[in-house]
């Protein structure tokens, strides 16, 4: 076969080009540390990387949600603890007053303290986290309670109707965590209204019956509690069982010095305290869930990073070895090219 | 009996032949590096012998009369030439295709933080932030801003992809100019070569030139070359015929003898809608006057497809309209006659995407038309031609492939890179719009709870495409229109819709103050049918399955406005603080087969297309190198070989001169004898 000079030079140029292209490509990978810089480098890997990046972003969003949930729950927990402290203070007031040894002026002071406790608890129900009312569920922009036009504390919004939807945040694929505490059990109790004598009052809880008897509006003389003649259509009475009701009854009863009624209130305060404790327990369980989710998300996040790295990142040791090999190949190709000025027969003819 | 100087004459022919051999070697060495040059060889033959009948005997002895160079011929192998041209067409097509596809790929800028994928991730994770604080106007503004930049980016990518198509079309137009001038030169060379051959000349340089032109032509288009020989006055002449295959399975003759044809690239726009016959009256057509290249064309609502084509052709607007068949249906195609893109009023001529003809002028499409040697027009390849790829090879073929098959739906499969992109975008806009329209927002003017408006709309009022996607102007105006709240769903659930007690005993239901004729105990289905059977409630009820497999009641407001009151159903009216719909929106990012996955598979397919093209390019390149080597081993110049020839010719010259000298001396001795 004839070997033409053109052929030799063309082959040389092509070999040098190929060695250079391979070298440049590897050095790009080595310097960027990424093996996929464009989809054609690894079409399947690219799709994986895009999906892992999306998953990564999602995990970051869930982490942010979980942290928000954690902060909001911590705020709620603090409010509930403060309410417990307030209830304890109210209980000791009631205990002091029910012994009957307190003087009128002492009772008046106690009544004032009870009023302060009431305002404090009412304002605690309006605790806010980042501008949102934590006890309002999904109606976060609305406060829970406040003094109404007559100065009495009332529960407003959905909490009053017993319809409460907790605000929920997503902290994992389809995993929702309620971030707001459903305090309807202490916020809205039952309400009993009487407007005539002889009405059946047996539906009222024991402590309320006891209090009504102390106030003279209910009598148990017939064996079943009934309203007395003090209750008429022109003088109706309404009794509620919510925490705000209980605290305002305590304040009223201290103010009027009705120790029998105060004793009834004390029982109610104790049972409300237990309800608050169970709310805190539920909240604590949810906080544990969020904490567990946070550490789980942290693990997921680093797993995703490792996976993405295994697809996208170059193996440095391998790439450096490859780079060295290609550098040698390129140098050899160039050196061989320089040597290629082969003598022809013409060189020896004189 | 030969003459006295016969021997001298023989020596003289040898001297002449040796000199020619040296000249040929010199010419070969001189053209060592000339592209397209084929090594030439001096064909030596012994001259016609001299018969000596007077010598007697049985046979008449013949005496040799010397040597002559009968011809100087090129060393070529026509088999390798045609293989070389075919391979070069492939190599040129793949390398051009690779560079176009790489441009498309770089428009996407994936994977990275600047691509559409990152923008979608940001958009969806904004919704998670919004779900934390749904009434926050700053969280809403972030969603709104990122939605706008998402829409902008979709438009930019679409235009970027289209502009690669425009560049390919422009390049094809330039290349077609080169093809046409090559065809003319080939026809001229055919004439000149056959004239020279007719008078027994060997036009080696012209033959080389012709081969070189055929080679450069095969870089631009795929051609088939055949050689026609004829005998003129005892001499053999050869002319090449160049043909090019067309998509229909036929072929167009571009050069035959001294005649030549031409090619032209015609930017093309095809109607979006197809019809059963050329005489069909397109549905949704209105009486209208649209402009094409500044010339008004009027159509009437009763026109048939063919009538409209005739109207357009009569208007002389720089386009040719024709009714073309694609499969069993017909479309109207506009072909630019001046090589320029067709300009017109609106993106969609004579209708919108959903009605009328809707000829989209915004996309790059091309028809490669040919005029053959007899002046007959033919379509080589067109956007509506059914097939997986264009039959056109070379760099023009690659441009046609890109414009008609990658950037427009492939007529065979309906799929292409561009349609995959369009599908990814519509998966995104569809999922986002559906979710947004299922949620509620607090209307900033009326204060009513209202079902959300679409997030993405078309900026020209037509169907939503990547070219015209924008954020709903209402949402651009205020983030308050982002529907962050969930559907009206009952709090209480039942295990089965058709049995069990959904509505507790003694409970009655009223919606918007209208009593519903149902009292508990009742099943979910009973309540649903009672609500739907009550006039004036303003809602439609349906049972929905919740995430825990239970069934709840969902109310969909008939007017898009949430009911003002619901009693008995434990349905909470939506609140600004309910981020349910924002969470559902963010979850689209993780949907199986959702927009993120559709887009990722588009990017992957784009990468695979580039990768495949690169591999094919490498394969055809090494094949080309191999064939070039083979061709060089036949036609290339070897200095060693030529030097050997020179030495041989020199030796022959020296020897022949010596022969002449001896002859001279012999004659001298004869003369001296007298």
Short description:
The complex is a heterodimer of chains A (350) and B (674). Chain A has helices at 5-32, 43-98, 104-124, 184-187, 206-215, 243-256, 259-312, 316-338, 345-348; strands at 128-129, 132-133, 145-147, 153-155, 168-172, 175-178, 191-194, 218-219, 226-227, 237-240.
Give an account of the 3D structure.
The complex is a heterodimer of chains A (350) and B (674). Chain A is mainly alpha-helical and 350 residues long. Chain A is built from 9 helices and 10 strands. In chain A, helix 1 runs antiparallel to helix 8 (316-338), helix 2 packs antiparallel against helix 3 and helix 6 (243-256) packs antiparallel against helix 7. The relative contact order of chain A is 0.15. Chain A has a domain at 54-137 and 178-189 and 242-301: f41 fragment of flagellin, N-terminal domain, CATH 1.20.1330.10. In chain A, 61% of the residues lie in helices and 9% in strands. Chain A is rod-shaped. Chain B is α+β, with helices and mostly antiparallel strands and 674 residues long. Chain B has 4 domains: 6-75 and 637-673, no CATH class; 85-261 and 383-478 and 580-635, no CATH class; 263-371, Alpha-Beta Plaits (2-Layer Sandwich); 488-573. Chain B has 13 helices and 27 strands. Chain B has helices at residues 6-30, 78-108, 116-132, 137-198, 204-220, 305-314, 394-406, 417-438, 473-477, 524-532, 580-587, 595-635, 639-673, and strands spanning 40-46, 50-51, 62-63, 67-74, 224-232, 235-245, 251-256, 259-260, 262-270, 288-292, 295-299, 319-326, 329-336, 348-352, 355-360, 366-371, 377-381, 440-442, 449-451, 456-458, 469-471, 488-489, 508-511, 514-519, 539-545, 551-557, 566-567. A 5-stranded antiparallel β-sheet of chain B has the order 12-13-9-16-17. The mean pLDDT of chain B is 86. At the A-B interface, helix 1, helix 2 and strand 5 of A face helix 2, helix 3, helix 11, helix 12 and helix 13 of B.
């Amino acid at each position: 076969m004839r070997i033409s000079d053109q052929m030799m030079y063309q082959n040389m140029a092509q070999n040098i080009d190929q060695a250079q292209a391979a070298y440049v490509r590897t050095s790009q990978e080595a310097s960027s540390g990424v093996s996929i810089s464009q989809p054609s480098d690894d079409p399947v890997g690219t799709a994986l990387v895009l999906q892992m990046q999306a998953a990564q972003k999602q995990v970051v969003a869930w982490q942010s949600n979980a942290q928000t949930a954690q902060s909001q729950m911590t705020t709620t927990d603090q409010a509930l603890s403060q309410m417990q402290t307030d209830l304890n203070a109210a209980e000791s007031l009631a205990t002091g007053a029910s012994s009957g040894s307190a003087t009128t002026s002492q009772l008046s002071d106690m009544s004032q303290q009870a009023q302060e406790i009431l305002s404090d608890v009412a304002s605690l129900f309006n605790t806010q986290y980042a501008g949102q009312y934590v006890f309002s569920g999904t109606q976060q922009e609305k406060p829970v309670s406040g003094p109404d036009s007559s100065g009495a504390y009332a529960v407003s919004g959905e909490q009053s109707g017993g319809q409460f939807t907790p605000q929920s945040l997503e902290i994992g694929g389809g995993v929702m965590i309620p971030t707001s505490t459903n305090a309807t059990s202490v916020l809205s109790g039952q309400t009993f209204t009487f407007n005539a004598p002889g009405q059946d009052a047996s539906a009222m809880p024991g402590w309320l019956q006891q209090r009504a008897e102390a106030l003279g509006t209910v009598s148990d003389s017939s064996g079943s509690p009934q309203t007395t003649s003090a209750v008429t259509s022109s003088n109706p009475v309404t009794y509620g069982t919510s925490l705000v009701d209980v605290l305002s009854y305590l304040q009223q009863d201290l103010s009027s010095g009705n120790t029998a009624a105060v004793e009834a209130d004390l029982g109610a305060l104790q049972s409300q305290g237990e309800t608050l404790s169970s709310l805190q327990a539920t909240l604590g369980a949810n906080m544990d869930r969020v904490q567990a989710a946070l550490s789980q998300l942290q693990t997921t996040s680093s797993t995703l990073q490792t996976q993405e790295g295994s697809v996208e990142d170059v193996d440095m040791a391998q790439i450096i070895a490859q780079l060295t090999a290609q550098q040698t190949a390129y140098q050899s190709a160039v050196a061989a090219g320089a040597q290629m000025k082969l003598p022809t027969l013409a060189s020896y003819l004189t | 009996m030969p003459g006295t100087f016969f021997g001298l004459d023989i020596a003289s022919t040898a001297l002449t032949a040796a000199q020619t051999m040296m000249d040929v070697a010199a010419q070969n060495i001189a053209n060592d590096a000339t592209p397209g040059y084929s090594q030439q060889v001096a064909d030596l033959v012994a001259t016609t012998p001299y018969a000596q009948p007077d010598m007697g005997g049985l046979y008449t002895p013949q005496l040799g009369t010397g040597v002559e160079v009968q011809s100087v011929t090129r060393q070529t192998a026509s088999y390798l030439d045609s293989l070389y041209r075919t391979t070069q067409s492939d190599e040129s097509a793949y390398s051009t295709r690779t560079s176009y596809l790489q441009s498309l790929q770089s428009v996407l800028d994936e994977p990275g933080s600047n691509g559409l994928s990152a923008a979608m991730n940001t958009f969806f994770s904004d919704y998670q932030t919004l779900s934390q604080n749904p009434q926050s106007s700053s969280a809403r503004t972030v969603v709104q801003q990122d939605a706008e930049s998402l829409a902008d980016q979709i438009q930019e990518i679409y235009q970027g992809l289209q502009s690669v198509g425009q560049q390919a079309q422009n390049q094809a137009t330039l290349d077609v100019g080169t093809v046409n001038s090559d065809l003319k030169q080939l026809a001229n060379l055919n004439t000149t070569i056959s004239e020279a051959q007719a008078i027994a000349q060997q036009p080696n340089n012209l033959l080389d030139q012709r081969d070189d032109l055929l080679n450069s032509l095969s870089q631009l288009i795929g051609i088939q070359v055949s050689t026609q020989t004829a005998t003129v006055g005892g001499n053999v002449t050869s002319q090449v015929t160049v043909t090019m295959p067309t998509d229909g399975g036929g072929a167009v003759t571009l050069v035959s003898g001294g005649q030549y044809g031409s090619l032209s690239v015609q930017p093309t726009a095809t109607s979006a809608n197809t019809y059963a016959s050329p005489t069909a009256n397109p549905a949704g057509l209105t009486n209208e006057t649209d402009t094409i290249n500044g010339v008004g064309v009027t159509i009437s609502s009763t026109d048939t497809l063919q009538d409209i084509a005739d109207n357009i052709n009569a208007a002389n607007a720089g386009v040719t309209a024709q009714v073309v068949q694609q499969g069993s249906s017909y479309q109207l195609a506009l072909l630019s006659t001046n090589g320029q893109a067709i300009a017109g009023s609106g993106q969609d001529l004579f209708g919108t995407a959903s009605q009328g003809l809707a000829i989209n002028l915004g996309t790059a499409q091309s028809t490669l038309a040919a005029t053959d040697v007899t002046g007959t027009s033919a379509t080589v390849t067109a956007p509506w031609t059914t097939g997986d790829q264009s039959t056109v090879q070379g760099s023009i073929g690659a441009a046609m492939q890109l414009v008609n098959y990658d950037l427009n739906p492939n007529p065979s499969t309906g799929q292409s890179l561009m349609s995959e992109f369009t599908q990814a975008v519509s998966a995104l806009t569809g999922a986002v719009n559906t979710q947004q329209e299922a949620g509620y927002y607090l209307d900033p003017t009326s204060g009513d709870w209202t079902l959300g408006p679409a997030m993405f709309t078309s900026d020209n009022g037509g169907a939503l495409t990547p070219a015209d996607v924008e954020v709903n102007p209402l949402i651009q105006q205020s983030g308050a229109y982002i529907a962050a709240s969930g559907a009206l769903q009952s709090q209480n659930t039942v295990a089965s819709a058709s049995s069990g007690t959904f509505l507790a005993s003694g409970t009655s239901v009223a919606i918007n103050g209208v009593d519903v004729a149902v009292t508990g105990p009742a099943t979910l289905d009973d309540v649903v049918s009672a609500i739907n059977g009550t006039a004036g409630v303003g809602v439609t009820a349906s049972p929905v399955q919740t995430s825990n497999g239970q069934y709840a009641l969902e109310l969909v407001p008939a007017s898009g406005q949430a009911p003002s009151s619901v009693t008995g159903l434990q349905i909470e009216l939506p609140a600004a603080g309910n981020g349910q719909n924002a969470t559902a929106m963010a979850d689209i990012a993780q949907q199986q087969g959702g927009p993120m996955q559709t887009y990722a598979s588009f990017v992957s397919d784009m990468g695979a297309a580039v990768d495949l093209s690169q591999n094919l390019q490498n394969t055809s390149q090494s094949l080309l190198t191999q064939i070039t080597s083979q061709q060089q081993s036949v036609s290339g110049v070897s200095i060693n070989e030529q030097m050997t020839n020179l030495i041989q010719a020199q030796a022959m010259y020296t020897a022949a001169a010596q022969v002449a000298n001896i002859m001279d001396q012999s004659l001298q001795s004869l003369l001296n004898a007298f």
